[in-house]
Amino acid sequence: MKWKAQMPLHLMLIPGLIAILIFQYYPMAGIVIAFQKYMPTQGLFHSKWIGLDNFRYVMELPDFYRVLWNTIYIALMKIIVGLIVPIVIAILLNEVRKNAVKRIVQTLVYLPHFLSWVILSGILLDVLSPKEGIVNSGLRALGMQSIFFLGDNHWFPITLVLTNEWKEFGFSTIVYLAAILGINPALYEAATMDGANRWKQTLHITLPGMAPIIVLLATLSIGNVLNAGFEQVFNLYSPIVYESGDIIDTFVYRIGMIDAQYGVATAVGLFKSLVSLILIALSYTMAYRFANYRIF
Fold first, then answer.
1. Which of 98, 236, 239, 287 has the CB geometry, 3.0–4.6 Å to 219, for a possible disulfide?
2. Neighbours of 254 (CB within 10 A)
3. Which pLDDT tens digits describe the chain residue by residue (296 residues)?
4. Chain-centre distance of CA 17, in angstroms?
């Protein structure tokens, strides 16, 4: 029978399901902390129940809406730049005729994806240093003033977006290159015979051929509107750029881990999770409608 043939495959899922239950669903019991005045010494079952007071307290904090705006702004800029740059690089790489050169470039732009922000932050702190960093040294050599990239509220969000894209665009480029390779070569041959140059071929064949995957990734990225990148921000920011660089995740970290306001931190985290759930559901609905993408 069919179920007997598929039974080994289902059995192989058991370790993964156990891991998910232990590390993903079991910790969800801690959500009740958002509705308690949680005291570690009293535990989940004996801490005082205060209902929605933690949520009201968070909404009344003067910094909350600034943090929310920073999160949305930085995340949206990362999404937009993260769509444009890989598309351009993929099209440019597709025009390279020497496979050896193409492979070398692909490898070089792909490598930063495997480095953690702990390592990259140390590199960026040196490279972007206002006194001895190579970037500011180059600016001074050109007669320009040094820029405090990691200490200026104007430049810090821009620095976050650009450095994140430098790290991740190589990975995204592979997806778009795969989409380009799926385009029928006969279309390019026909366009060449009709006198279309490379630009017109890119405009009328390559980009339309990439459109389904572009629409798919754009719609799926909606679910990341409140994910501005905790690891990157945490390793690069400082109190002088809280005004423009503080995001929900770092805000929760300081409230929960430093100020020990566990109930308030959990309330903020729960708020973010609920909004993200709604956005993810919306993104998958749009992906199904506009790109015919379905999970099941």
1. 287
2. 14
3. 567 777 888 888 899 999 999 988 888 888 888 888 888 878 777 888 888 888 888 888 888 889 889 999 999 999 999 889 999 988 888 888 888 888 888 888 888 888 889 999 988 989 888 888 888 888 888 888 888 888 889 999 999 999 999 998 888 888 888 888 888 888 888 888 888 888 888 888 888 888 888 887 887 787 777 888 888 999 988 889 888 888 888 888 888 888 888 888 888 888 888 888 888 888 778 777 766 666 55
4. 26
